[in-house]
Amino acid sequence: MSPSRRYRAAESIAYEVLDGEAVVLHLPTGTYYKLNEVATRAFEALVTAGTLDPARTGILDEFEVGEESLDADLSELVDDLVGRGLVAEIRP
């Protein structure tokens, strides 16, 4: 996970956060995705701040998780979100 990477919500999605969990609709396929509370925090950070830094800091403060473990989990989440077409990396 590189701190220099920037992201945005894919143009082909619609999403809503309900009770701390996101429901994301991939419009081209009609597939819905439900994100748990931690994944929602990461997703929202990506689409609003363009980076995972705000979510990462908050998760580290709130949960008992090691930095390496969290970084690996967040990296996997971002790869999954990008792979499913829900988030797009902003290329310089």
Name the descriptors:
92 residues; alpha+beta; 3-stranded antiparallel β-sheet; two-stranded antiparallel sheet; 27% strand
SSE topology:
Elements: E1 6-9, E2 13-18, E3 21-26, E4 31-35, H1 37-48, H2 53-62, H3 67-83, E5 87-90
Antiparallel strand pairs: 1-5, 2-3, 3-4
Helix pairs in contact: 1-2
Structure, described:
This protein has 92 residues and is an alpha+beta fold. The protein contains three helices and five strands. It has one domain (8-86). The strands form two sheets. The chain has a three-stranded antiparallel β-sheet. The longest helix has 17 residues, at 67-83.
Mean pLDDT: 91
In N-to-C order, the SSE pattern is EEEEHHHE
Total count of domains = 1
**Number of distinct helices:** 3
The proportion of strand residues reads 25-35%
Reading side by side through the largest sheet, how are the strands ordered? Answer: 2-3-4
Identify low-pLDDT runs.
none
